[in-house]
Amino acid sequence: MERLQKVIAHAGVASRRKAEEYILAGRVKVNGEVMRELGTKVSGRDQIAVDDIPVYQEEPVYYLFYKPRGVISAVSDDKGRKVVTDFFPSVRERIYPVGRLDYDTSGLLILTNDGDFSQKITHPKYEVDKVYVAKVKGRADNKQLLPLTRGIKIEGQKMAPAKFQILSNDVSTGTSIVELTIHEGKNHQVKNMLKAVGLPVQKLKREKYGELTLERLRPGDYRVLSKKEVSQLLNLAKKSK
Predict the structure, then answer these.
(1) Which of 64, 85, 215, 240 has the fewest CB neighbours in a 10 Å radius?
(2) Fold of 62-124+216-240
């Protein structure tokens, strides 16, 4: 069940604020009856019309995408840069990314048109783990990374505790490969956390989201999530509340 104005906006009829104006003005009908209350919730079975023109309600869809570097995690960009939805030309639903990956970060990204699903798996209180692999400048050691497991402050805001694993150290290049597991999704979080312990990130990739991985995908590829995978993500969120 979703709010009526949200369904109208998602269908592309108008912005959510404009949809609210339509409702208050009596221009919206649900199952043939005029609805003037903004709190009204509807399901996919309800027949909605604005000015007696039917509103098409999309079926929910879910995709796992291997985002390449140099792509914006958005549905449009005012600078004309490539965005993630450019890789889905044959998808008719109005999909959007769940959360985001930085422009120069690659890896696993979910796209959907299901707002409730998106909220449930991205809200910090649900604690769905996300695993990143970073190439960092410097020789990483356990002592240096240990503060991340207790939660560090960045710009006055405390980060939730993270888990780490040092995958390799390259003495010749002075770099290391570090795996970091977090459940929050703050802007530039992984980069800022590693920088805070003296390990600036040179390259970053998200390899896992809950139980989902990039197995058999190459940058720019995507696949449909199965019902089982969608349920597993929602169950992970429920268990962590």
Answers:
(1) 215
(2) Alpha-Beta Plaits (3.30.70)
Residue (of 2, 114, 102, 13) closest to 61 by Cα position: 114
- 184 pLDDT exceeds 90? no
- The pLDDT of residue 100 is above 80: yes
67 near 84, Cβ under 8 Å?
Answer: yes
Predicted confidence band at 45 (pLDDT cuts at 50, 70, 90)? Answer: confident
Cα(178)–Cα(19) distance, integer angstroms: 47
> Tokens at residue 30, please?
């649900």
**Nearest CA-CA partner of 234 in 102, 68, 122, 84:** 122
* Domain-wise residue ranges, the chain: 2-54, 62-124+216-240, 129-209
- According to CATH, what is the number of the domain 2-54? 3.10.290.10
Write down the residue that tokens 């044959």 correspond to: 90
Task: Read off the pTM.
Answer: 0.82
What is the mean pLDDT of the segment spanning 232-237?
88
- Residues 220 and 199: their CA atoms lie apart, in Å, by 28
**Chosen CATH of 129-209 out of 3.30.70.1560, 3.40.718.10, 3.40.50.150, 3.10.450.50:** 3.30.70.1560
Residues 209, 212, 215, 220: is their CA dihedral positive or negative?
negative
Q: Which of 195, 191, 189, 213 lies closest to 204 in space, CA to CA?
A: 191
